[in-house]
Each structure stands twice: as structure tokens, then as C-alpha cells.
Design brief:
37% of the residues lie in helices and 18% in strands. By secondary structure, it is α/β, with parallel strands linked by helices. The chain has two domains: 4-208, Alpha-Beta Complex (inorganic pyrophosphatase (n-terminal core)), CATH 3.90.1640.10; 214-333, Diaminopimelate Epimerase, Chain A, domain 1, CATH 3.10.310.30. Strand 1 (19-23), helix 2 and strand 2 form a beta-alpha-beta unit. The protein starts with a helix and ends with a helix. The mean pLDDT is 94.
């Protein structure tokens, strides 16, 4: 149940024209871009001066989304993005709950500002930077939570087809096409309402999932060749070196979903996917699990990350080999 006092105050806030920025997390996925662009379309109809500012570039497979061509990318246009944020009366932060999730470049800028922050998110352990926090881990996606918030704000009538396409995208991607445990009867009711707005769901699925390039499939094959199964720990892991990423002409978003292959093996309930990024000096890590295996706690404790019980991310400053060694040693001692 959402705080009705907060709902009333946010209603009053957006009842007059404001300059508003909307921010997803760094390396935005379908839920992050879907929620930010969905909200963008709704607020535009109220007459607000609205801008989505993404910390860095989003994947090509999301570039079809209505309004994506209007997004300012902070790392590509820092001056314009910073000015936009500095001039904002309200900043919505969607699909993340700590400002550091926007990356090392953008975080100091956000921390230096004093707008009204409004958080809409479904991850665990939200920080306290926002004036208004709409956070609920029971939701399978921020997009579903956003839809319910817009309903509470009596703005769901402004969810036109473009907004609906964006919100639907986030629900589809974060629910694993409706197969993850947090997909509820309410999720399907929200999707039914979005379909009533006139969206073409097969078209959206094709844009999201039937867009593999030849090089991406080669990259997937390479990752699968690198897979290691640890049956005694009911675990597995995959990895890609930077040279392998370069060999197959890796583009942002190409490795989306690769981690799930490690969880598809019979008898495995915990997997990790390691990606080497020498430019940033980190190993990027994705964790997935099923059942009661808590990868959020595992990522927070060992790899400076977090997320959900069954899906989380982290990073390591060690080499790829040492990161994998650390991972296998930890799970040998006590699996999450």
C-alpha cells in the first residue's frame, strides 16, 4: 500500500508546470529505460518540461522505444546533461535506489544538487536521498510499480500507446517474459490494461528478443564454451574475456541474458557471469539463482553489488582469473 500522504503531496507537486529530469541506472536495461520513458510520456502530457538523462548509452535493442531518441546521455554530453539536472525542480530516479548506481561520473553531480528527488524502485535496501520514496520489493519490475503509482496519482488515463509500449517492455524483460516468481495475477492485469491501450505485443517481443546479430550468436557460443559447472555446489559460472568480446565485435547489450544459461542446467540453482572490462578496470558480474538462494546478499557481501534475491549484480577490481578464484573459494566455503 502506497503512502497516501506522499501520493497527495506528489499530486500537488506535479499539478503545476515544472522542469523535471528522469534518470535510469547506469547500463540501463529494459525495465530502467521502459520506466523512465513511460513516465516521460505521461509527464509530457501534463505540460512539464521533461528530460530523460541516462548515465551512459543504452543497448541498441532498446533504441526502438518511443522517445529514446530524445534521451541525453550523460557520459556523451556531460555539459548539457549537467545543466539539465542543475535546472530541474524535480528529479525522478527509476529502477535504482542508491545514487552510486549512476556511476562514478554522474554520482557527484547528483549529490551536489538539491532538487526534490522522487524514487520509484523495486530493489532491496533503498537509500534515504529521496524526498518521496515509492519502493516495494514485492514487484517484479519497476515498470509494474510505476503503473500502480500512476494509477494512485490518477494519471493512468494518460498512458497512451507509446507510454504503454515502454512500460510493457520493462515488465516483459524483468519478469523473464512472465516466468519469474514475482509475476503475479496483478502483473497480468497490468499487462491486460496495457494491451487495451493498443500495443502490439508480438512486435515488442520481436524487437527485444529476435534481434541477434551473427556476431552476438558467436559470442554466446564462446560464453557457453567457457561455462564451468560445479555440481557439488549446485553452481555454475560463465565468463568472457575482453579479447573474446572484441573478437566477436561486442556491442552494448549483446550479453543480455547470457547469465541465464548457467541456471538452465538441471541441478544448478546458482550461477554467475563474469565480463572483463579493462577500460573501466573492473570485472562486471551478474548473479542469478532460483528458490531461496539469496544472490542479493551474496553480491552485497562479497562483490560490492546487490539487487534482488534471485537476480543481482556486482563488480571486482581483481583480475578475471583472481575474481573467478575468489568466487569459487567463497562458494566452496558457504554457498549463498
Amino acid at each position: 500500500m502506497m503512502n497516501q500522504s506522499d501520493i497527495k503531496e506528489v499530486k500537488a507537486l506535479i499539478s503545476s508546470t515544472k522542469k523535471i529530469s528522469i534518470i535510469p541506472h547506469r547500463n540501463p536495461d529494459g525495465d530502467a529505460m521502459g520506466s523512465t520513458l513511460g513516465l516521460y510520456h505521461v509527464l509530457k502530457q501534463l505540460g512539464h518540461d521533461v528530460q530523460v538523462v541516462s548515465p551512459n548509452a543504452f543497448p541498441d535493442f532498446l533504441a526502438w522505444m518511443p522517445g529514446s531518441d530524445q534521451v541525453i546521455v550523460f557520459e556523451e554530453n556531460k555539459k548539457k546533461a549537467t545543466e539539465c539536472l542543475q535546472q530541474s525542480d524535480i528529479i525522478f530516479t527509476l529502477d535504482f535506489n542508491v545514487l552510486s548506481r549512476t556511476g562514478d561520473a554522474m554520482t557527484p553531480v547528483l549529490e551536489s544538487l538539491t532538487p526534490i528527488y522522487i524514487m520509484v524502485d523495486h530493489h532491496q535496501m533503498p537509500a534515504s536521498y529521496a524526498s518521496y520514496t515509492f519502493s516495494d520489493t514485492a514487484y517484479g519490475s519497476t515498470c509494474e510499480l510505476l503503473y500502480m503509482l500512476l494509477q494512485e496519482l490518477e494519471l493512468d488515463s494518460l498512458i497512451h500507446e507509446d507510454a504503454a509500449r515502454c512500460i510493457y517492455t520493462g515488465i516483459v524483460t524483468d519478469s523473464g517474459s512472465f516466468r519469474f516468481p514475482k509475476t503475479t495475477a496483478q502483473t497480468h492485469r497490468v499487462v491486460a490494461a496495457l494491451l487495451d491501450k493498443g500495443i502490439d505485443n508480438p512486435e515488442i517481443h520481436n524487437a527485444l528478443f529476435n534481434n541477434s546479430s551473427y556476431h552476438r550468436l558467436q559470442l554466446l557460443g564462446c560464453a557457453l564454451q567457457n561455462m564451468v559447472v560445479l555440481p557439488e555446489h549446485r553452481a555454475s559460472y560463465l565468463y568472457l574475456t575482453e579479447s573474446q568480446l572484441n573478437q566477436f565485435h561486442h556491442k552494448k547489450g549483446d550479453t543480455e541474458g547470457f547469465v541465464n544459461y548457467g541456471l538452465s542446467i538441471d541441478g544448478i540453482d546458482f550461477t554467475a557471469f563474469f565480463t572483463e572490462n579493462k577500460e573501466e578496470g573492473i570485472i562486471k558480474i551478474s548473479f542469478r539463482s532460483q528458490g531461496n538462494v539469496d544472490v542479493n546478499e551474496f553480491a552485497r557481501t562479497h562483490f560490492e553489488g546487490g539487487g534482488h534475491i534471485n537476480a543481482a549484480g556486482g563488480k571486482s577490481l581483481l583480475s578475471l582469473a583472481d575474481t573467478i578464484k575468489k568466487f569459487t573459494q567463497i562458494i566452496a566455503q558457504s554457498k549463498p
